[in-house]
């Protein structure tokens, strides 16, 4: 193969690979969008591959090119929320001080407002059964993230931190859900103030008796 022909061959293959990657990403996005719509209409166990592909206007073999089952799609669906939340928490890690949680809570509410659409379509859906399932999965993913961040500040208290994180993640998920659905009339600052009091009480209950002192 001559040099010019080789270059054309390489460029053509790269172009084809780029198109394939874009098409794959588009298909995955369409399937995620279809699942978001169906989760507001039906309990998840009733959602089938056929329903998803019809809603996404894709062939069944396209679904199976990316996912092994509807459960596999749901894992990626929830993973999008966990990855976004993990990134937000890492950005706010310096403010995760159980003794003084106000700064972290302000950043948390700002993140909720910024990611409102993602949370409403991927966690706090209208269907109550699906909302419970999605919230439970997200709770399970967030607790170890919280523990890891706090344990990095002060190693040796993972047991107490796990109880503390479990309590606060459960509480915060409920509050965020009510906030997004308009059930809480408080302003952002009022919410931060009231949540700060609860977070500090949780610190006194779970961590203070064990001598937890934040270290940098």
From TrEMBL:
Transmembrane segments: none annotated. Residues 25-85 form the HTH tetR-type domain. The keyword DNA-binding applies. Residues 48-67 bind DNA. GO terms for molecular function: DNA binding. The keyword DNA-binding applies. Keywords: DNA-binding. Coiled coil: none annotated. This is HTH tetR-type domain-containing protein. It comes from Pseudoscardovia radai.
């Amino acid at each position: 193969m001559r040099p010019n022909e080789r270059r054309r061959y390489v460029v053509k293959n790269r172009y084809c690979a780029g198109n394939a990657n874009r098409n794959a990403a588009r298909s995955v996005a369409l399937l995620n969008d279809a699942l978001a719509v169906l989760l507001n209409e039906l309990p998840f166990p009733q959602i089938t591959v056929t329903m998803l592909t019809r809603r996404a206007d894709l062939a069944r073999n396209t679904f199976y090119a990316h996912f092994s089952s509807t459960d596999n799609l749901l894992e990626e669906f929830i993973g999008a929320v966990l990855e976004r939340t993990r990134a937000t928490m890492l950005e706010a890690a310096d403010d995760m001080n159980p003794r003084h949680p106000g700064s972290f809570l302000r950043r948390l509410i700002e993140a909720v407002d910024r990611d409102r659409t993602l949370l409403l379509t991927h966690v706090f859906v209208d269907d109550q059964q699906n909302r419970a399932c999605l919230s439970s999965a997200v709770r399970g993913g967030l607790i170890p993230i919280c523990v890891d961040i706090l344990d990095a500040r002060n190693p040796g208290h993972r047991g107490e931190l796990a109880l503390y994180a479990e309590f606060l993640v459960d509480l915060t998920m409920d509050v965020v859900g009510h906030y997004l659905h308009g059930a809480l009339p408080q302003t952002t600052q009022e919410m931060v103030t009231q949540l700060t009091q609860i977070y500090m009480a949780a610190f006194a209950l779970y961590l203070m008796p064990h001598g937890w002192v934040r270290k940098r």
